[in-house]
Amino acid sequence: MEFPRRRVEPALLASFLAVARSGKISIAADRLHLSQPAVTAQVRKLEEALRTSLFVRSAQGMVMTAAGKRLYEVARQIETLLSRAEEVVGGAQQPQGRLVIAASTTIGSYVLPGTLGAFCRRCPRVTVELIIENTDRVVEHVREGRCPLGLVEGLARAPQLRLVRFADDELVLVRGTDAASNALFDRPLAVRSARDLARLPLIWRELGSGTRAVVEQALRKAGVSPRRLSRAFVLGNTEAVKAAVAEGQGLAFVSRWAIQSELREGRLAVVPLADLSIRRALSWAFPSGALDGPAAHFVRFVQLSPPVPRFGW
Known about the structure:
Elements: H1 10-22, H2 25-32, H3 36-50, E1 55-58, E2 61-64, H4 66-89, E3 97-104, H5 105-122, E4 126-133, H6 135-143, E5 149-153, E6 162-176, H7 179-186, E7 202-205, H8 210-221, E8 233-235, H9 238-246, E9 251-255, H10 260-265, E10 268-270, E11 278-286, H11 293-304
Parallel strand pairs: 3-4, 3-5, 7-8, 7-9
Antiparallel strand pairs: 1-2, 5-11, 6-9, 6-10, 6-11
């Protein structure tokens, strides 16, 4: 006996893609502006329509099955075709105007440039201005209405704003590889845990930096008081921090997004700490109202083509 074939609804594919890309129902719900039960129900409805399991739950989140991986490739093609249809039909109504985005240092300098370039090619009538500040200043810009949206790192909440996960990041301890840096490790100072940091010079970002706030919180959870650690330098941007580390002036915690070229070229090296792993979310900072105009188009564009880190966990 044959069962009647059920129609696959495009909305179900959108939920499937959001879960597949994020690996989390909660993140997919944020991106789709739906509740978690609604996303779960849509995934189940899609599985029922296809009569197969698309995900299995694991410690890492929602992992696609073999069938899910096959569907993912087809769903991506459908998504691209629908996007192309919108462009062809609505070509005369392409967004235009000025888009101002405020982004924290790591996101603005290392995560966004490629995405912004692709967006500008897709929407040539939009003029983009990117303001790069520390996380506290980005929140102020959005809250006070100077920017329609922002991108911040490390915040769990921000009064009067809505935070939605944008991408993932990891902060790692790095050292230089030149003679001055190596001299720090010539002493009998094995660096294996967070407590060992008290014996070495550290370079910090300024107060108000999302990176600094996340690192200090992680150290406290590991039983290490940031106040007891050295402050060889306090510098106002990631490039200055990386340069100081490369010259052997100390060690620093930086984003993996920010050090890809230095790691490839051997100018910096990661110092693993057995008791400290610092993961964080990079998030949209939205005002309470709905977005429109170029800002809404930009968010939709990024949701369809989210930035993917070139590093693994």
